Amino acid sequence: MAEMIFSGAARRTTGSLHLFRHQGKTLCLECGLFQGRREEARQLNLHLPPEARDIDAVVVSHAHIDHTGRLPLLVKAGYRGPIYCTPATLDLCRIMLPDSAHIQEEDADFWNRKRAQNGDRIEPLYTAQDARAVEPLLRPMECGTPREVLPGVTVTLLEAGHILGSTMVLLEYRQNAQPRRLLFSGDVGRFDQPILRDPVEPPPQADYLLTECTYADRRHDDIAGMQERLCRIIQQTVQAGGKVIIPAFSVGRTQSVVYFLEQLFRQGRLKPLPVYVDSPLSAQATEVFARHPECYDAQATDFWRSQGELLSDGRFIHYITDVADSKALNGRPESCVILSASGMCESGRILHHLKNNIEDERNTVVVVGFMAQHTLGRRIVERREELKIYGRAYRLLAKVEVLNGFSAHADAAEFRRLYAPIAPKLRGAFVVHGEDRQPIAMQELLDSLGCHKSQTPQAGQHVTLD
């Protein structure tokens, strides 16, 4: 008997963790961190599902922390099995998990100092040492090459086009002597996204589909049009004497924006001005991008071959790693562009840039990625008049521009394009990684394509396949 157990990202966007059981063995798909309201997220992250003690192997689709951020907790709890991923994902995990641990330690230190008078203390979810303990377990897998990860269960990784090294995961097994396939989407990327190859099209026919639905309820703006809008926003902000602040995920979004800016500068469409990528993790991630040109699409490959550099030309882009240099940015009077992490504005250096700049109406905050519920980033998108940062209230006087065309998640039209060839023959589908209207929209989309047996599982739900 084959069974799915849904733990994280069930009727919510973060904390991805899905368990596949077959013939007494358990495969874990993703092991991500919950994000959102601080105390709620902490409580969710503290406790792995009880079935985690039975995990025999792990496959992660990509390196984003909401898909990998509980791996240190899993290893801390005693897991010593393999963790399969692409070579690019492996290299990104090597830098992203220690960075996540650093954030956990900083957060714990901040709240412990704040609560010192009450005598209350909290421990970080995990430490840098816990994060480093994951690395020996990481096993590289090339896309398109099947591997038996459990007895009778074969995994093939397929291009997903979401971030560097991201994949869909095809599970093949037998049920009552009949061959079965389960396709896990991971996070599906865009078609024609800069730098990366498109998602595999069409995906292989499967019996069951486990799909994300982050943007299943909307259409994105055209990606090429986003470059023009970004150019105009920067020009208008510079004319007003302001700064452009861009919260951006260190992996994926930062590199896409930098790539577009370099093209604008080289083509003379945007007058040169300082662009600061203020994130040690972003700088490290950009180095990983440079080591994996096998992930580039044709246009990025041509650009890389002709220019010699894809993302790190010091004439236009300046990477900030030193804390003192980061602090100095807020004292600079001239117009500039600052990209900083974290992408949802929940931690990291972006908080300092926001608190120093959002009360100046000359400045512009440009949102280029998804902002989950209950995050500071979502409150900025909603243009709340007052924002709390580090316990203090700040007025949001800066302009806010939302460029959803930069999203690395497929929208409704792209899901339709991807799933139309396989939906009619699906025996069932499970919708995860979405909240509010998004799962409903995905179920309606699948139904319109001929898959009439989809569901949105709850956290903790067990579903028997066949």
Structure, explained:
There is one protein chain. This protein has 466 residues and is of the alpha/beta class. It folds into two domains: 2-218 and 408-465, Metallo-beta-lactamase, Chain A (4-Layer Sandwich), CATH 3.60.15; 223-406, Rossmann fold. Helix content is 31%, strand content 22%. It contains 14 helices and 22 strands. The chain has helices spanning 38-46, 65-68, 71-76, 87-114, 128-132, 223-239, 253-266, 280-291, 298-307, 323-329, 350-357, 376-381, 412-419, 437-448, and strands at 2-8, 17-22, 25-29, 55-59, 83-85, 138-140, 147-150, 153-159, 167-175, 178-184, 208-212, 244-247, 275-278, 317-320, 337-340, 364-367, 386-389, 392-395, 399-402, 428-432, 454-455, 462-465. The strands form four sheets. Strands 6-5-4-3-2-1-22 form a seven-stranded mixed β-sheet. It has a seven-stranded mixed β-sheet with strand order 7-8-9-10-11-20-21, covered by helices on one side. The chain has a six-stranded parallel β-sheet with strand order 14-13-15-12-16-19, sandwiched between helices. The mean pLDDT is 93.
Topology:
Blueprint lengths: L1 E7 L8 E6 L2 E5 L8 H9 L8 E5 L5 H4 L2 H6 L6 E3 L1 H28 L13 H5 L5 E3 L6 E4 L2 E7 L7 E9 L2 E7 L23 E5 L10 H17 L4 E4 L5 H14 L8 E4 L1 H12 L6 H10 L9 E4 L2 H7 L7 E4 L9 H8 L6 E4 L8 H6 L4 E4 L2 E4 L3 E4 L9 H8 L8 E5 L4 H12 L5 E2 L6 E4 L1
Parallel strand pairs: 3-4, 4-5, 5-6, 10-11, 11-20, 12-15, 12-16, 13-14, 13-15, 16-19, 20-21
Antiparallel strand pairs: 1-2, 1-22, 2-3, 7-8, 8-9, 9-10, 17-18
Helix pairs in contact: 4-8, 13-14
